[in-house]
Amino acid sequence: MNISVILPAAGSGRRFGGSDKLGQDLGGRALLLRTVELFTKREEVRSIIVAAPPDSFDEFQSRYGATLSFHGVQIVPGGRIERWETVRNAIAAVPAEATHIAVHDAARPAAPPDLIDRVFEAAKLLPAVIPGLAITATVKRIGDEAVSAVEEDPVADLILGDAGRQRTEARAVAETVDRRGLVAVQTPQVFAAELLRRAYAQADLDGVTDDASVVERIGEPVYVVEGDPRNLKVTTQADLDMVRSILKAPPPAERPVHKRF
Q: Which of 51, 46, 47, 18 is nearest to 32 (CA)?
């Protein structure tokens, strides 16, 4: 196998609070670098491409370029609006000799080696392979309309306005969803290079949320192997705290100064 790994890193990080999520400290190295390191020593991986925010590309290059270059990583501009734009831009930089393309969320730095082994092994025989975790919790679909779940106090409102008021909204349950056969999808997702190129050549990709969805749109089968609960995607500060626990990488303030980057 000759695998080219794409790491989409062009997101704004709004749900993380707008700060540089990929630059968060994980044991003295940036989160992005920890994700890159999942693939740098794998024999099957021949190239790694990071797709960066196009509007702050020079800043991204300045911050990460030297370190990523040391690992042989190529940085390309990603998309401005949708994730699929970022992946499509990166696919254009994949070497022609690549037999497979793996796409992995840049904010998943804790993917265990055995998970990556599992996906890569399956991809030797199957054209599109993704990891997924069976959903064990009860799943409910809720309505769009939100109602206030806070008791009104006209006197307090007159005096204080919105100051100090806890805002709680509730939505009605529309239905309980049958969870049989449902999985929560993870990355890396691995595809035969020709298949992913063909899938991303479609004109209309609006609404797709992962790369497997793009392949499904051209009618090709996608296969699921077992995922791993440790393979968290860092979206919020709470996610980062959990990933630090998984990787045994305490926050910077808990480490000696000489061990921080």
A: 51
